[in-house]
Amino acid sequence: MQFLNKIRQVWQIKDLRNKILFVFAMLVIFRIAAHIPLPGVNIANLKDFFARNEMLGMLNILSGGAMANFSIVAMGIAPYITASIIMQLLTMIVPKLEELSKEGSAGRQKINQYSRFLTVPLALIQSYGMLMLLRQSSSTIVENLSFFNIANILIVMLGGTMFLMWLGELITEKKIGNGISLLIFAGIVERLPASLQQSIAIFDVSQLTNWIILAILALVTIAGVVWLTEGQRNIPVTYARRIRGHRMYGGTDTYLPMRVNQAGMIPIIFAISIVLFPSLIGQFLIRSASSFLAKFGQFLITLMQNQLFYGLIYFVLVVAFTYFYTSIIFHPKQIAEQLQKQGGFVPGIRPGAPTSQYLSNVSGRIMLAGALSLGLIAILPIITQNVFKISTFVIGGAAILIVVSVVLEVVKQVQAQISMHEYEGL
Predict the structure, then answer these.
(1) Cβ burial 294-317 (10 Å sphere, 16+ → b, else e)
(2) What is the pLDDT of residues 36-68, one digit of tens each?
(3) pLDDT by residue (tens digit) across 398-412?
(4) Rounded CA gap, 27 and 20, in Å?
(5) Could you tell me if residue 160 is inside a domain?
(6) Which domain CATH number covers 84?
(7) pLDDT (mean) for 321-344
(8) What is the pLDDT of residues 370-391, one digit of tens each?
């Protein structure tokens, strides 16, 4: 009943209703574009190729499901995500970019503009690499690859990526969730009916126990993802009292939130890029004229098809990148200095270097739980497929993490806007 009341309340607020309808319209436009194939592509052979190559399914998730159709938005917003990650890394390395990031909203807008510029060459490179991979894998997928046709396909794919980037920013401006995440979310949700239909078609009563266990495991996984997304450690912070004239300032108690998963989806995106690299290289080398290179390419493909080896490498990479990326975005020394300047301190800990060391130790402990949990979520499909022998309705752990994170973020932002309207008496 409370849920229905919230829906009714959202619908009664005209401004919020218009924003939600606008976001929905943008997602519909994205899904229509995702089903418009590029010219000269054999869709049937392409889908068969994706069905036989599970690793490309990860890239298909990042494209919002558009890559499996090799549509005009086949690369999705993956190049923009890569560009944003590169700019975040460069911000920590290049002094000028670091200074720019400290200039507030104006500085962040410039860095976002640089990310857009960087997206253009990355989209062209990734589009060309995917086109050549499909050409090397099967000559029946993309036909008549003359120079003019290649240039035409690359320009259309670049335009599709920039179009989705624009849609994502329009959605973000409405403050109903993050636009990029919502585009990926729409692609994942769109695949659910087809997966459910395939599962019902091959349903066997003898596997009923496995299906029940799988359903329970799915619910536990969703609960774990919610815990991982929302879990945080609150560090108590006290601000010293200051007397100026006849007034007293400060003397308040608050807390510093430290999330269990501070890195979000970035470690999984990093790990996917690395773990797919050997297979992509193998696909290029397997058709080489050199027998040594062809054998080496086949070795790479066979090695990465080993589920145990692949799962272990994937898990280790996710854990390692969680530590790596968290160390980039979380700076205990800067936080300790800022607290000291503002007259704040952690009770029982001296300001300055001891506070920095304390925050670093706490971050390391909770990061271990977050990194291991994120790694387990990432390899969840491999575990379920090998244990329950059901592959038609197995959704990747990364997809579950995206779906749950997006839903939680949208709910929070909608509730914030409802509270704002109630506060303003609208």
Answers:
(1) eebbeebbeebeeeeebbebbbeb
(2) 887 777 777 776 666 666 556 666 666 656 666
(3) 677 777 778 888 888
(4) 11
(5) yes
(6) 1.10.3370.10
(7) 82
(8) 888 888 887 877 777 777 665 5
Taking the CB of residue 187, how many other CB atoms lie within 10 A of it? 26
80: domain range? 18-200
**103 within domain boundaries:** yes
Residue 68 is assigned to a structural domain of this protein: yes
Question: How many domains is the chain built from?
Answer: 1
In a domain, 205, yes or no: no
CA pair distance 32, 66, nearest whole angstrom = 10
Nearest CA to 396 out of 134, 7, 55 is that of 55
Which residue shows structure tokens 């062809």? 294
User: Which residues are registered as beta bridge partners of 235?
Assistant: 256
> Per-residue pLDDT tens for 64-87?
566 667 788 888 888 888 888 788
Q: What is the mean pLDDT of residues 183-212?
A: 71
